[in-house]
Amino acid sequence: MISDPERAPDRPWEPLARESLYRVIEERRDIRTGFLPDPVDDAMLTRVLQAAHRGPSVGLTQPWDFLIIRDPVRRGRIRELAEKHRRDYARTLPAARRDRFDDLKVEAIREAPINIAVTCDPTRGGRAPLGRHTQPRTAPYSVACAVQNLWLAARAEGLGVGWVSFFDERELAAELGLPEHVEVVAYLCVGHVEGFPPVPELALNGWARRRPLAWAVHQETYGRRGLPGEAPVDLIEQTIAAVGPLDEAAMADARDLQSRLTKPPGALGVLEELSVRLAGLAGRCPPPSPEPAAVAVFAADHGVHAQGVSPWPQEVTAQMVANFLAGGAVVNAFAAQVGAEVTVVDVGVAAPLAPAPGLLPRKIAPGTADLTRGPAMAPEQARRAMETGIEVARELVAAGNRCLVTGDMGIANTTASAALIAAFTGLPPERVTGRGTGIDDAAHAHKIEVVRAALARHGLAPAESAVIGAGGGPAGESVTVAADPMRVLAAVGGLEHAALAGFILGGAAARVPVVLDGVIAGAAALVAAALCPDVLGACVAGHRSAEPGHAAALEHLRLRPLVDLELRLGEGTGALLALPLVQSAVRVLHEVATFDSAGVSDKNGGR
């Protein structure tokens, strides 16, 4: 061990000391419940604060202060401030999220024997402390380092720490009597606890999962992923390699369970086979309930709009994105009805979009090029968009979602979808090109010719190209790739198609169901299945769109839609309507009694 804490070590720590450090880091927990009333020894508290005070800081300014609060009356007032904002936040959550959030209380403010407000004085150090000239926010960043030191030292002492963040910062500052120039960075509850959970509480209750380290390490440039000592990985190849076939043993268990439930065999029709597939996807029976669910609306513009294939101006894409974010679109209404969360991803909207809650700025390019004049995307753009979809799927699953729903927005995207579907199925343009947002006969005929011209330009016309994929599906039929799917995607697809294909692959790799929406999702699923046939084990066709290309895509993929209401809106609306059916299929396996357990005779008179 190092005897002088001010002296830099001249050699590595002994193994036991090093292991102890790593253990403390690994076992640090955010404690919300289970605080004991036992007082904290002053000497112990001083050691913890000393550790915090040794945190690194910009220019050695040590911009932190520690306000210790023991007064139960004051803590009661602070608890009320936090509870008000906690309730406000709860009202913004979908139902499935809200149910889990109800368990996350702020009672520790009153129950823990000590509260500590860690503050930041960004003016400390004078006019130009070393390191803060070009990075003014390094003062609160430094305070965060002090908070982490405090947290780790407390864990080593056997003390629990909980960080409460449901505050209006200025409101809390006023209650604490802070000067105007001092801000609150952290409000901590500290004390002895009944015990430390084996994993973070948010993981225990299913709120979120810890991201693997491999997702967070990049080599030299952002996006070039790879752990130290390992070669950089190709995210698309890595994701495809993680997609496996359905678990046959789990599927057999699900079929056996279905046969023993208190209903006639096969009485639930398509939902029975769906439950079996979802068990195979999860690798266990019954599978986890596919909730919470999140719909990701991938938005992008299309250069083929210049060919007059849509009566709507291109700026409608950005306007509808604003509508999604304001909660005023059909996807918002349907998501609220079924308790799903809406995330909007800008992968290629032509107009710049202002930052907003619920918007992920992932723009690859301001729309695609005109696919009748050349490739819609450069190969690298198609890859980056697909990687974006994979990352969005990963992050939504890590955030605790157990079902993904595809959504889309992009004026003229049905034209690109028709071109993709024709290329992947071998069907002629007139069979797969629909009326999109509503066009008359003349405009429809023109749209067909635009699709035909694009296919011919890129050597993808049915008579000239090999069909990509011979069909495949949940039963395990193979999809043979007779052309490069990424080349086809770049030639005639959209940025949202590429992102959706990645989103589907990412969901399948995480072993969660992906409920597909309409024709845009169907076109993207063709790309994903051509790259990885096993991806279809995770795919659920939410509905059949009125667009003819969608029926062709589903037939090619051998996916049976759950709903057929002649919808053609997109956004994720049809998939959201089907979401309760997906959840019901799993709920049956969890909640319906067997003949034996219910004491009901089966058709043979047995139990």
Automatic annotation (TrEMBL):
EC number(s) on file: 2.4.2.21
Pfam families the record matches: DBI_PRT, Nitroreductase
InterPro entries found in the cross-reference section: BluB, Nict_dMeBzImd_PRibTrfase, Nict_dMeBzImd_PRibTrfase_bact, Nict_dMeBzImd_PRibTrfase_N, Nict_dMeBzImd_PRibTrfase_sf, Nitroreductase, Nitroreductase-like
UniProt key word Nucleotide-binding: no
Active site annotation, chain numbering: E571 (proton acceptor)
Coiled coil stretches, renumbered: none
Presence of the UniProt keyword RNA-binding in the record: no
Keywords: Cobalamin biosynthesis, Glycosyltransferase, Transferase
GO MF annotation terms: nicotinate-nucleotide-dimethylbenzimidazole phosphoribosyltransferase activity; oxidoreductase activity
Example of a GO biological process term: cobalamin biosynthetic process
UniProt-listed Gene3D superfamilies: 1.10.1610.10, 3.40.50.10210, NADH Oxidase
Nitroreductase domain segment(s): 25-192
Reaction catalysed by this enzyme: 5,6-dimethylbenzimidazole + nicotinate beta-D-ribonucleotide = alpha-ribazole 5'-phosphate + nicotinate + H(+)
Listed pathway(s): Nucleoside biosynthesis; alpha-ribazole biosynthesis; alpha-ribazole from 5,6-dimethylbenzimidazole: step 1/2
Similarity section: Belongs to the CobT family.
NCBIfam families for the chain: BluB, cobT_DBIPRT
Function field: Catalyzes the synthesis of alpha-ribazole-5'-phosphate from nicotinate mononucleotide (NAMN) and 5,6-dimethylbenzimidazole (DMB).
PANTHER family per the UniProt record, alphabetical: NICOTINATE-NUCLEOTIDE--DIMETHYLBENZIMIDAZOLE PHOSPHORIBOSYLTRANSFERASE
Record-given protein name: Nicotinate-nucleotide--dimethylbenzimidazole phosphoribosyltransferase
Gene name of the record: cobT
